[in-house]
Amino acid sequence: MTDNVAPTTRVSAYGLFFDEVDRMLLVRIAPGFTRDAEGRWTLPGGGLKFGEDPEVGVLREVEEETGFTGEVIRLAFVSSWTRGPLPEMGYGPFHGVRIVYWVRITGGELRHEVDESTDMAAWFTRDELRTTPLVELVDRALEYMEGADLALAH
C-alpha cells in the first residue's frame, strides 16, 4: 500500500426524531462496519448516493434502518469531522459532512435493519441516553437541542 492515498469526503444525512413522550429514536451500529463504533447508537441516516438530494437520502436511510416513513420538517444542524490518513489500512485523509434534519414519522412500523450497517432501532428516554453507548453525532444533537425550539420538532 502507498502512503499517497487520495483524500475522501463523504456527505451523509440523518434524522432527528422524538415521539409523543419525548423519547429519541436511534439505531445501533452493526459489527464490522466501523473501526471503533460498533455497538454504539447513532441517529438514523447515512451516506448519500451520488446525485441524491439530502432530504431524499435521509428519508431513504430512515426507512431502511427503522421501518418508518417520514417527512423532513426542517434543517436541524450541519457538522463535520476529519480523520488523518491511515495508509497501513489503505485509507487517505477523510472528511465527513453530516446534515441533520428534524423528521416527522408519517407511517411504517419500528423494525430492525438486517445484514446492513445497523442491526437494531429503538426509542430512548433522556435518562436512558445517559447510560447508552453513543457516537459523537448523538452527543452533538443533544447539545444542539438544548438551544432549539422543540415545539416545532414534534
What does this molecule look like?
By secondary structure, the chain is an alpha+beta fold. It has a single domain, classed as Nucleoside Triphosphate Pyrophosphohydrolase (Alpha-Beta Complex). It has 3 helices and 7 strands. The strands form 2 sheets. Strands 4-1-6-5 form a 4-stranded mixed sheet. The longest helix is centred in the middle third of the chain and has 13 residues. The relative contact order is 0.27. The C terminus is likely disordered.
List keywords for this structure.
globular; Nucleoside Triphosphate Pyrophosphohydrolase; 7 strands; disordered C terminus; 154 residues
The assigned CATH architecture is: Alpha-Beta Complex
Shape: globular
**Name of the CATH first level:** Alpha Beta
Structural class: alpha+beta
The total domain count is 1
Query: Rg to the nearest angstrom?
Result: 16 Å
Helix content: 10-25%
Number of strands: 7
Q: Mind telling me the CATH superfamily name?
A: Nucleoside Triphosphate Pyrophosphohydrolase
Mean pLDDT: 89
Low-confidence stretches: 150-154
Largest sheet descriptor: 4 strands, mixed
Strand line-up of the largest beta sheet: 4-1-6-5
Strand portion, in percent?
35-45%
